[in-house]
Amino acid sequence: MPNNTSLKSHVSKKTILKAVALVIIIGALVGYLGWDIIAGGPLTRIFSEGNQEKLQATIASWGIFAPLLYILLQITQTVVAPIPGQVVGGIGGYLFGGWGILWTLIGTLIGCYIVFRLARRFGRPLLEKIFKKSAVDKFDFIINAKSSSLVIFAIFLLPGFPDDIVCYIAGLTNLPIRRLVFLMAFGRLPTIIFTNMIGAGVGENLTLVAIASLAGVLLLGLITWKREWLMQFFKASTKDANHANSSKQEKSDQESPEA
Fold this sequence. Notes:
The chain is an all-alpha fold. It has helices at about 1-40, 40-45, 50-60, 65-80, 85-95, 100-120, 125-130, 135, 150-155, 165-170, 175-200, 205-225, 225-255. The protein is about 80% helix and about 0% strand.
């Protein structure tokens, strides 16, 4: 009993520290963006409409190579994950406008397909070489869960989860790769659209972009804050589904006549 109380106290303090850090970061971000917009600071000058149009014209002069290079960047980000996908999506919107959504989606689809294949070919040892074992263990429940499709879709849909780990974990499930690609595409699409629209609108209305970005950061912070609760919810839902299926199977076995 004392151990449980101590654990709860530790988790509570950790949660409070995260919340305080998040409030400080958001406050500093809001303060700086507000000053930058009012005073015409460096961000306002860099992301002005004139600069964006010049850069887009330069990119357009590269022809088909520009989207191909961007798609390659997105594939690399998905497979290796050196930088957040949201940042790459914003760059796509800034450089290509509405077309950035398509190029980002294509790059993400190809990248995730490669990840699924790699995970299925090399198994868990590959994951533990790329990620910490403790991080992988948190998502082990997905592999044999009866409702793994729903959990994978929910994690792809919600920001704040480590999509890179989940993508590799998803490759270890028995789900067909075609279904995994489908779940990933529709789960990630809202975030892809949102980040690309923010990137595309930077040069046109920085104030609106700042508000939208702040809303996105708040949503991300909320989900990150409640991530452990959501993880417990996902685990409980998979256990309930497994238990229900086991009960149905046992009942069916009892009702079936013996040979």
